[in-house]
Amino acid sequence: MSFESLTSYFWCRRRILSALYIITLLGLLLWWYDGPGRRWFNFYLTCAAYEIFWCLVAFFFWPRKKDAWLIALVVLLLTCGIEFLQLWQPPFLQLIRSTFFGMALIGTDFVWGQFPYYFVGSLIGWFLMRHLGLMTPSGLPLECACPGPGGQGGDV
Fold first, then answer.
1. What is the DSSP secondary-structure string of the chain?
2. Alpha-carbon distances, residue 99 vs 32, 90, 94, 106 (angstroms)
3. pLDDT tens, 28-40?
4. CB 6 within 8 A of CB 155
5. CA–CA distance from 126 to each of 30, 56, 116, 130 (Å)?
6. pLDDT tens digits, 56-81
7. If you write DSSP's letter for every residue of 87-117 in order, what string do you get?
8. How far is CA 53 from the centre of its chain?
9. How many beta carbons lie within 10 A of that of residue 52, not counting itself?
10. Boundaries of every domain in the chain
11. I want to staple 71 with a disulfide (CB 3.0 to 4.6 A). Which of 58, 77, 92, 115 is the partner?
């Protein structure tokens, strides 16, 4: 891997980590928001942030721009599956859901109204993945977002 592609690789990873940090803080702020429109922020808008978060986590490990649509689709399908899983209430899942992390990761209640926000979040996640690595540190356009395995470009 050349110095230039290595620099691009780490620059891309830093951008993804920065975006993850921001969306994590935003998601937590939305979840703990206690003002007007509390229910919408806490139960619906957080769903979009949840989708974006998982898209970015996957993109950190598979940073190829051409895979962004696949990552967004898989995250959407898994999240919808987890939402349907909330209809199942076995004791071991209830125990997991009783913790903060269990509640944050798999939720507690099935809500049809959250599905549109999952779609919107995946769409925003796709958009972010397509645009996160498009510039070098100097601000010049980069042909591919991040080097793939062996130093090859992310669009290869």
1. --HHHHHHHHHHHHHHHHHHHHHHHHHHHHHH--STTHHIIIIIIHHHHHHHHHHHHHHHHS--GGGHHHHHHHHHHHHHHHHHHTT---HHHHHHHTSHHHHHHH-SS--GGGHHHHHHHHHHHHHHHHHTTSB-TTS-B-SSSS--GGG--TT-
2. 16, 15, 9, 10
3. 999 999 999 999 9
4. no
5. 21, 9, 15, 6
6. 999 999 888 888 999 999 999 999 99
7. T---HHHHHHHTSHHHHHHH-SS--GGGHHH
8. 3
9. 29
10. 3-151
11. 58
Structure tokens at 142: 């980069």
CA dihedral 5, 8, 10, 16 (to 10 degrees): -140
Q: Kindly report the length of the chain.
A: 156
